[in-house]
Amino acid sequence: MIVERQILNQKDIQITIERLCYELIEHHGNFKSTVIVGVQPRGKFLSDRIIVKLKQLLNTTNLESGSLDISFYRDDLRRREEPIVPEIMDMNLSLEGKNVILIDDVLFTGRSIRSAIDALMAFGRPKSVELLALIDRRFSRDLPIQPNYVGRTVDAIDSDRVLVEWKEENGKDRVLMVKSES
Amino acid sequence: MSNLSVDHLLGIKYLKKSDIDLIFKTTDNFKKIINQPIKKVPSLRDITIANLFFENSTRTKLSFELAEKRLSADVINFASASSSVAKGETLLDTVNNILAMKVDIVVMRHPNPGASVFLSRNIDAKIVNAGDGTHEHPTQALLDAYSIIEKYGEVAGKKIVIVGDILHSRVALSNIYCLQKLGAEVKVCGPSSLIPKHLSALGVTHFSDLKEALNWCDVANVLRIQLERQDVNYFPSLREYAMVYGINKEVLDGLEKEITIMHPGPINRGVELSSDVADSKHSIILNQVENGVAIRMAVLYLLAGKIKN
Fold first, then answer.
1. How would you write B77-137 as a 3-class SS string?
2. pLDDT tens-digit readout, B218-242
3. Which residues contact B279 (CB under 8 A, 6 or more apart)?
4. Where are the domains of chain A?
5. Whose CA is closest to A162, among A182, A131, A137, A126?
6. pLDDT for B1 beyond 50
7. What is the DSSP letter of A109?
8. CA B15 to CA A97: how far, in whole Å?
């Protein structure tokens, strides 16, 4: 893996998350009928940060949230060498009539989000579903899926990878553009 | 790491501990799914599964069928009583005809030990053994061990006694393999005529006295007397068996500690278990049934992941 460039550093990520939170508040007010759902595994880190920030900005401890495992809804079960090992599903809530904000770190082909929308519907019929992505690779979509809230738009060729690292897992918050060595 | 080391589920004997751990980890997630408002996932929507039951079954068949449907697989069912097997067709012919209909996974119950191994060597589909004669019943053992973990947090270090007709039981053999692989201590209890001689080779010893066995164990897995498999009399009468080896409330109350009662079903109430025990708080029989669906979903999901497009 060769690091091509750093897209966001720790400070940039912090500012971006804060800006995204203000955008969410602009649209969802006091979040009374809004649920925040992080897509497992990588979207969970971002949704956790957003929830902490929103609680601070709204001065509340009461925000409905969950984390969604999409393994069983994916469309590439038999296209991989290894089976997809499921992550933890933490959705002790009903989405019936709620406004859902789906959160993932990188929006690339749109296939994960397609699976996530499918998975969401098992928890009720939401009033609306919006998508928030830290990184939007807008020219790489396989499906007609667009985000409502974007941290940073990145234009790159398909073979490049955008890697989002989180302090909790990698010791550092940063977003990198990497190339595989082959 | 995250792949089964086997291409078929023929018996617990062929699994590694890491396989069992992977199946249990996947089961955790399926258990959540079957408790959701919508209990179905689309994972196996392009997979066709044939359930071939050459021997009677109610709960195993229903449990597999439900698991398959919850995974969105296409399911075809076959019962030998109503088929051409009755007209003299061989196992291989029957199965090859079914496979010509493009079946990806075969779930089979068969009265002959080793039937699923034979099938796996001769046909190109993933095989799940749903019980082969008196040999193995791997998904039952997996769901039993999973139910013990749910109750106690782990199997390692636990003492488990299997009570009843060990000689004719495929559940007993699969349970012994599975529980030993997970680090439990396993013993059996029953009349000597129903204890197979080879068990000592597996490191399993035998209690003749039920009270002694129950005082030793944390969990008692109680088996049915399989009268349909017994061509000679192994004990004087069912009544006498129930008196010596039947577990009732009085027996449990007389123990030095609380134990957990399991049973793979169907229960002969009043023979190996009395109703007041089967329906008591000691019993986790219905948890076993619920876990059965989740375990079978996990097994089918992981095996289907090995079928390449």
1. EEEHHHCHHHHCCCHHHHHHHHHCCCCCEEEEEECCCCHHHHHHHHCCCEEEEEEECCCEC
2. 999 999 887 666 666 777 788 888 8
3. none
4. 9-76+89-159
5. A137
6. no
7. S
8. 46
Query: Which positions of chain A have pLDDT values less than 50?
Result: none
B48-76 as b/e: b if 16+ CB within 10 A: bbbbbbbbebeebbebbbbbbbbbebbbe
- Whether residue B307 lies within 8 A of chain A, CB to CB, comes out as yes
Residues B102-108 have a mean pLDDT of 93
| Cβ(B108)–Cβ(B119) below 8 Å | yes
CA dist., res. B10 & res. B21, Å (int): 17
Residue type, B210: L
d(CA A92, CA B200): 48
Q: Using an 8 Å CB-CB cutoff, list residues of chain A that contact chain B.
A: 69, 71-74, 77-86, 88-89, 91, 94, 118-119, 121-124
CB contact under 8 A, B42 and A72: yes
Residue B91 vs residue B4, higher pLDDT: B4
pLDDT, residue B309, reads 66
The mean per-residue pLDDT over the stretch B5-10 comes to: 95
Report the candidate in B196, B153, B151 with the shortest Cα–Cα distance to residue B176.
Answer: B196
In chain B, the domains with their CATH numbers are 12-136+289-304 (3.40.50.1370), 138-286 (3.40.50.1370)
Show residues of chain B in contact with A91, CB under 8 Å: 36
- CATH class of residue range A9-76+89-159: alpha beta
Alpha helices (H) along chain A: 10-28, 43-58, 111-120, 167-170
- Substitution target in A85, A91, A111, A117 with the highest count of B β-carbons within 10 Å is A85
**Assigned token pair, B130:** 């749903």
Mean pLDDT of chain B: 91
Q: What is the pLDDT of residues A130-150, one digit of tens each?
A: 999 999 999 999 999 999 999
A134, two tokens? 């830290």
Residue A81 to residues A87, A93, A114, B30, Cα–Cα distance (Å): 18, 34, 22, 22
More confident residue, B176 or B56: B176
Within B123-268, where are the H helices? 138-152, 170-181, 210-216, 238-245, 249-253
* Residue that is written with structure tokens 């090995």 in the block: B306
Query: Minimal CA–CA distance to A72: which of A61, A80, A83?
Result: A83
Tell me how far CA of residue A160 lies from CA of A1, A42, A146, A176, A182, in angstroms: 10, 18, 20, 10, 12
